[in-house]
Amino acid sequence: MALSFIFGLLGNVTTGLVYLSPVKTFWHIVKRRSTEEFESIPYVFKLLNAYFWTYYGIVKPDSIVVATVNGFGVVLEITFVAIFLLYAPPRMKKRTAILAITCDAMFPAAAILVTQLTLDQQMQIAVAGLLSAVFSMVAYGSPLSAMKTVVTTKSVEYMPFLLSFILFVNGGVWTVYAILTHDYFIGIPNGTGFGLGAAQLILYAIYYKPKTKSPPSSMEEDKGWQPCEPLIDPTSIPHVVVAQERD
Fold first, then answer.
1. How far apart are CA 71 and CA 82, in angstroms?
2. Which of 36, 16, 41, 178 is nearest to 98 (CA)?
3. Phi, psi at residue 60, to the nearest 5°?
């Protein structure tokens, strides 16, 4: 078995975990039948990104490992967007529908149709790879806001360790795969993600402070009160596309 294929399989596992990271949040949305203050834009653009990586894995020979995990991502992101369309308030529901039709239906359909009808295979690979790399670079740049918050507040409260670690490993695995297969479209965005993930872990090591638990008050003991926590960290979702989900 080729070493590149092994790293591709490892990349399927790590990328699958990244795609699955917001499942808990959406389960709460379904239970509460409301999206509350959560934004749909990141999931719309994650779906678009997954579309093009799937297309890239299909048109490029010997890249089935790229197509499989991102095809899985397409199914998940369609589900997430559909949940927004079901439970979002009217104004957000309308905006989500417009974005989904434009960005997740018309644009990818037009791009794939044009490349299939007018370009040869090598150009199809180049266009699909370029679009995928651009969207991934934007996604991997999203943790910068969370990193800024950590430095400003000197607290890692809004930068979940587990997700930062998974993104770090995911970027590293796909970077090695890209080196082995000489694939710059995969290597550049994932190498960038690996570097940003390493920077996040360094910040975590610098600013992490163990939480001290205060004894519960008598009211809390009597009523079994527990503090309310946000479903998802407000600074960990990007403004354009998601690389990091809220915890």
1. 17
2. 41
3. -90, 130
pLDDT in tens, 135-161: 888 776 666 777 888 888 888 877 778
Could you tell me the end-to-end alpha-carbon distance of the chain, in angstroms, rounded to an integer? 37
The answer to whether 192 and 137 are in contact (CB under 8 A) is yes
CA dist 199 → 4, 167, 190, 205 (Å): 26, 11, 14, 10
CA 107 – CA 44 distance, rounded (Å): 12
pLDDT at 68: 95
